[in-house]
Amino acid sequence: MINQAKFQAFTLAEVLITIAIIGIVAAMTLPSVIANYKKKEIPIRLKKFSSTMQNAFNMAKLEHGPVESWKFPEHQMDFDEVNEFAHTYLYPYITGIKDCTSKEWICQKMSQNMYTATSYTIPVHIFADGGCFLFVTGGANENSANIHFTYDYNCLGKPNEPDKDIFTFYLHYSGDTMSFRSGNFPSYNSSGLLKKRSELMNLCKNHTQTHNSGICSALIEYDGWEIKDDYPFKI
């Protein structure tokens, strides 16, 4: 009995030591595991968002006719104009999407996370997979338009920071051509193609400078929808 008691006590001590070691190892490795997972997940979600939006607009074009005849939002902060555009040209072609009204505090929080330039609440649109987006017009007339989309792949999930979990895309149309693009207007050269990687990297690094915001999603697309090891920001 004495020997058995000693054996049991020794076994318990071993278990406790093992648990402690596992805890230490987990604390050291878990952040790295999570970061590596996000580096793989985020590009997949960005690519999915891009293709989902492009497909929706292509289908809308088939039903509503040439893009130059569409009713684009004319005022950047007009809640009704933005919502009308979304429900006319996007909602019928995307499964499981819903809007979040400005009357709900959680919608206000999501809107402010994605668009900090104003305290005005812009309509937020939520996907079934937990991602969400909003958009504002960057100028539109009879011949051309740019609409800027801000996409948060995990909505209220942290860190809620640009180019870490919040990314920029834009819809560009000129004449009868339309494309949904990653990044922002400065991401592209005069031929409408993505700029060189070195240029995109520099723009991405300096994303707080005027007109440089939102370039990082274009860098991720350029890299084959991957977040490379030299990506400027810690994921």
UniProtKB/TrEMBL annotation:
Single Gene Ontology BP annotation: protein secretion by the type II secretion system
Residues annotated as domain DUF6613: 33-235
Alphabetical UniProt keywords: Membrane, Methylation, Transmembrane, Transmembrane helix
Entry keyword Signal: no
Transmembrane regions listed in the UniProt entry: 15-37
One Gene Ontology CC term in the entry: type II protein secretion system complex
Domain of life: Bacteria
Protein name: Prepilin-type N-terminal cleavage/methylation domain-containing protein
